[in-house]
Amino acid sequence: MRYSSFFVGTTLLFTVHAQAELVINDSISSTVTPPSQITTPVTPVSDRFQSCLANLRSQAINSGVNASTYDRYTQNLTPDYSVVEKLNYQPEFSTPIWDYLSGLVDDERVRDGQQKIAQYRSVLNQVSQTYGVPAETVVAVWGVESNYGNISGKYPLLQSLGTLSCEGRRQSYFRTEFFAAMRILQRGDLTEEQMKGSWAGAFGHTQFMPSTYERLAVDFDGDGRRDLVSSVPDALASTANFLKKAGWQTGMPWGFEVKIPQGMSVAGESRRNKKPLSYWIAQGLTRADGSTIVQGNLTTTTPAGLMMPAGANGPSFLVFKNFDAIYGYNAAESYALAIAHLSDRLQGAGPFLTPWPTDDAGTSRAERREIQRLLLSKGYDIGEADGLIGDKTRQAIQKEQVRLGLNPTGRAGQQILRVLRNEQAQKMLP
Ligand code: CA
Question: What does the pLDDT look like over 69-85, one tens digit per residue?
Answer without folding.
Answer: 999 999 999 999 999 99
